[in-house]
Amino acid sequence: MEDYTRQRIQLHLRNEEVQARILENIHRSRADATVTIGRAAQLSGFSESKLRDLESQHMLNPMRSKENKGTRESKGQRQYPLEELDKLAVIQELLESRFALSDIPKDIGEIWDEVLPEGRQGRQLPETVPAISEDPVGMLSIDRRLAREKSLLFWRYYAAQALRMSLMLISEFLPGCAIGLILPLACDPVEVGVRTTDDLSRLGESLVGWLDTSGTVHTLLTHNPSFQYETDYCVYPLGIMRQERLLEKPIYHTLIVLDRPDKRSRRLSLDEAYVQTIRRMLAPLYEEVEFMRRCFGPGWHDHREVAADLGKVGYYQDSILEGLTDMVVRMGGTFANGRHHWKFSVILLPDNSAGKVPLQERTLVVRAHSKESPYIVGESKFIPQKSRTSVGIRAYQSGRILYRPHISLRERTRAFIDVEGEIQSNVAVPIGGEHGDPLAVLYVVSDSVEAFSLADRQLLRIVGRFIENAITTYDVRLRTTDDLKSLIHTPDVVDTLFNEFRCENDFMRDVEALVSDAHAWEEDIKEEESANEESGRSDVVSFIAIDMDNQIKLARKYGDHTIRLLDRAIGLRIQELIAPLTTRASQCYLYHMYADRFYLILRGYSREKACEKAGQFKVNLARSIAVHQHVAADSALVISEVSAHLAVTSYSRAKLSEFLQEYSSAAEVSAMISQTLDAVLKLGIGEGGNVVMAWNPEAENGIPGYSRWSQLGESE
Q: Which residue range or ranges hold the HTH merR-type domain (predicted)?
């Protein structure tokens, strides 16, 4: 280590406050130390794996509990003497003070002894060292608290997400049911004899994930996993099962907790793919037990992740949204007699139970309200046809705050007065309408006139963002767990819009197989050649690449979503053209590569015949295409400025054999063929588009190359 870095460390360790912190940690270690690796990790704040890393770098030198007398090799559990714990306290301080691990020398213990003033040598603790608080985290300074929390941020997030995704995977088979996962951190459930919920308390320290019927997931750490009414639940080992009968010997500690079978509509079955996925997600939680304790143990709040589908959970009142409506009333202030300036507030969301309807026809339903509200969650509705005077409906449809400082007599209908009383002013704030239709409306009323000043309305806009964040977070959480089965069954398919077509992976794989087995495809085609001679040579494979013209211009005009639908419509048109344009549809395969690019493989088609087919594709694609943007039949958008440039390449069996000898593998040949098609397509762009580019052995300048193909087979 450089002398400069050593001097910096010595200077840092001479600081009296630094020495006090280190001595405080040493004091705690000496008072409580049991010198196993687990206890050393708990005392120092390092994980067990980190302690092993420090040992491998010769920064720690723990003893072993056993020694092989024949080989003198140390075995057994690591034992950390007090000197090693002191050294850990010094290393921890340096790392938290932003020294790199590579900066810390192996003789850090000696450096610590050198910088201690006389009277503190030999790690003697002074009488002035303060008593250790029962809650050492609470004694940390603000910056150290922030640093500690930052170190836990990932594990707090991962643990909650791993448990949530695991629970949601199980809920695919038990939708709408409460489901729990218990991860024993200290013992094996089989060894301690856990068979029913009565036995759960034997597990001791456990991490628990719980999915309730509203879709909310709870994460907590408990030393006593149990239920008040134990007979309401049943417990199963996490494993492959059919109708809750285990099909494998329990090999994992995790337990599943469910309602009794008679309280559910079906029994649980889990396939191997689901079980293995869950096990792999949860495995790190068992490996980092100390992090789980620090994230969710005493002194730390449990993690609660809400993902309620507010449009489907009926009368469920979300605690976050409910708290925000109460906070709105509180923010309005009070009169001298303690009465609130603002009477009540409610949050209105579109009623999507009837599906997506036009903005002007959407009904708003109460999804949260403050304590004094006369409305009922999930039942009170504002219907456009019946609530013409409702400022909530009009604010939702206009995207503007509507404020009535003095409610007119014309707006005081009998139904209005019967529900809301003799209110004097009200305000409706659209939520999330800055970039499209609003997500919701915040509606607030008051018994006083002119109750909502400009400053009040500015504040309500800010509160509206709080509400928007909660609603959109719920929506995102729901979408990330939507159709999890497809991730297991079809993991390669992300965008299902182009499901009808083979993909680039299929193209590369099929070309590799074609190149590797050229003799086989030649024999297959020869069997049919006598029945149909129109394809040309049987020992040739041709490729057609299709790319649409002016895609960027069209995207700017119509938007990316419409262009994706257009690309799919083009692919479907090509698919329709394959059968009538070829008499061997089984020998022609279509692939969607990406965006607007499609490839075709034509086995047994010569270059001339492939060019003829490409010319027919070009003509048929240069027509108007209807894009259906919505389910409604009258919502089709007709795009007329459509054309394509195409590329044709052909290879004989002999040429493919040469490629195999020239290149290192069939994969290299496949990549070369794909890149050649891309390069020829670029030539088509240079020609202005709406063209077929193909190999021309008799170019006008006498040099063979790729050029424009005409119907007569001559270069234009």
A: 35-111
